[in-house]
Amino acid sequence: MNNNINYLILIVFVIIIFIFIVIYYYKDKDNSSLSNNKIVKYNLPDYEIIENKSTDIKYIIFNINDTISNSVRITGGFSDNIQQYAISLIKDKNKNILDIGANLGTFTIPIAKYINSGMVYSFEVQKIIFIQLCSNIFLNKLTNVYPIHGLVCDKIINKFSNIILPDYKNNNNLGGYTVLDQKSDINSIEEKVRNIVIDDLNINNIGLIKIDIEGSEIYALKGMENTLKNNNYPPIIFECWNADFFKDKKIELFEYITNKLNYNITLINNADYVAIKNK
Fold first, then answer.
1. Is the whole-model pTM more than 0.90?
2. Residue 116 belongs to a domain with what CATH number?
């Protein structure tokens, strides 16, 4: 009798454990997949195509008063001095380039046209801007660009993050979009995006890294320590805000680059810097 009771208790216990496992599995599955992602209705502006005949580069841009769009509209590009500085650092045109925070491609596209057999890996977190990036890659007939949609971070806790999108029609600085300290309200539009750690991608033969992700640069760097080591510590061009509210985070970023990674930092201009590995 006692054996039967014990056996029954064991069966009930196993069933309960099984139910908990099933519930946990499907809960995790829903949180780590795009299968239940809601359809996002974007408020998008009209677009136009700008061609720079001197560089033979074309861009699809939004027809709005946005910083990058205005620059492309007026000059045919954006931050051309950074591109030229990057070109001066590329000693081997057959090496790969990382463009983390590619936006619509004003760095990716001219660099991809400059290098030979190397590949430009371009990362962009906003889906609409990522689609714009892909359109510009296609428009310029480039086959040596590998665009990647995702949030570059230091570690994977959850497979996906929810980000709040900007107002694409009325925002005058889409290039200044940041995922830091986002706060949602009743009018916020959220989007699910995959989290990416650079070390997980095992990219080799890297000659240069450019990072411009609006305050999240340190997280990208912490997630690529093995990549830096395995690629003999390539030069890094990065942006860092000079604003007072970012003072402590700037100190943290610079200390990490100089002390942890053993790079030397030099100002290029304004908020753009280059880090070169100390010999």
1. no
2. 3.40.50.150
